[in-house]
Design a protein that fits this description.
By secondary structure, this protein is α/β, with parallel strands linked by helices. It is built from 11 helices and 14 strands. It has helices at 39-45, 63-66, 69-78, 93-103, 105-111, 113-117, 119-122, 177-183, 220-228, 232-242, 257-264, and strands spanning 2-7, 21-26, 29-33, 55-57, 86-89, 125-128, 134-136, 140-146, 156-162, 165-169, 188-192, 247-250, 272-274, 280-282. The strands form 2 sheets. The protein has a 7-stranded mixed beta sheet with strand order 6-5-4-3-2-1-14.
Length: 283
């Protein structure tokens, strides 16, 4: 299994970190996990074509994870894609995809994309999955994991398995028992990491570590963020409890790497990597 981190950023624009997206070569297939801003251009950078993409997995409907989905679809059709897209995601994914295609129906009409690729190819297949559901690919499978993304429900992570390897991608989540359990038998965990600055007294502003803060004293917005994401102390808990052989952090903004590594690796001695766009791994 080959993994490329296409985008490791957050909703905040960052010239170094584009929107959340991951590319997998697994079994006989190519897979895209989330479609954050810039993922199409990142795919081109690694030599991948939308015409060859087999499956798209969406972890949840937040815009930073989905904003380039229509760019993916239209690019494949413009380039004479020969097979329909298959999109796998949580409940309400089909409604989201239907509305998205409807929003671009004038562009599709003007470009005459139906004439270019045919009605069958334009028929996007959407499969909605819940916790524990599996999807079978060519000599691999994916298992949906319901995660703890605060007020965002449903939100999923995914465990990808082929004969000799297992990869878990958390999506957006606070500390999640489902991720810990799945990662305990995995070779690699790609996990979000936010609030990556040490707390320095007073109610923590957004973007700081919330571990030591009385969350009831935060603004409602700051409390939602704190309860929806994983700070370094939380990721340390995930790493220690799962014992995953390799931990990779993603979904990051302004990271205090020295402090975050110290916190995460206090009781975790396996390899830990701060993910960067276009990093490649063999799992």
């Amino acid at each position: 299994m080959e993994l490329t981190l296409l985008g490791t950023g957050t909703p905040m624009p960052d010239p170094e970190r584009w929107g959340p997206a991951n590319h997998l070569r697994i079994g006989g297939d190519t897979v895209l996990v989330d479609t954050g801003n810039g993922c199409v251009r990142r795919m081109v950078q690694i030599g991948q074509d939308m015409t060859d993409l087999d499956y798209i997995f969406l972890t949840h409907m937040h815009s930073d994870h989905t904003v380039d989905l229509m760019h993916v679809l239209i690019t494949g059709w413009i380039r004479y894609r020969k097979k329909p897209y298959t999109i796998i995601g949580p409940a309400r994914t089909k409604d989201f995809v239907d509305r998205l295609i409807h929003a671009f129906e004038e562009d599709i009409r003007i470009r005459r994309l139906h004439d270019r690729v045919g009605e069958d190819v334009m028929n996007v297949r959407v499969i909605e999955v819940n916790h524990g559901d599996t999807f079978e690919g060519d000599d691999w499978r994916a298992t949906a994991l319901e995660v703890e993304h605060g007020y965002v429900k449903p939100a999923l992570g995914f465990a990808f398995e082929e004969e000799r390897s297992k990869l878990v991608i958390s999506g957006d989540t606070a500390v999640s028992d489902a991720i810990i359990e799945a990662s305990s038998t995995a070779d690699m965990l790609v996990h979000e990491l936010m609030q990556t600055q040490p707390h320095r007294g007073g109610p923590a502003p957004d973007g700081r570590d919330y571990h030591v803060v009385d969350r009831e004293g935060l603004t409602e917005f700051a409390r939602r963020i704190a309860n929806s994401h994983t700070c370094p102390h939380g990721l340390a808990e995930v790493a220690e409890k799962s014992g995953v052989p390799h931990l990779v952090a993603t979904h990051m903004g302004d990271v205090d790497e020295e402090w975050s590594r110290e916190v995460i690796c206090a009781n975790y001695s396996n390899p830990f990597t701060f993910g960067e766009d276009l990093m490649k791994f063999t799992v």
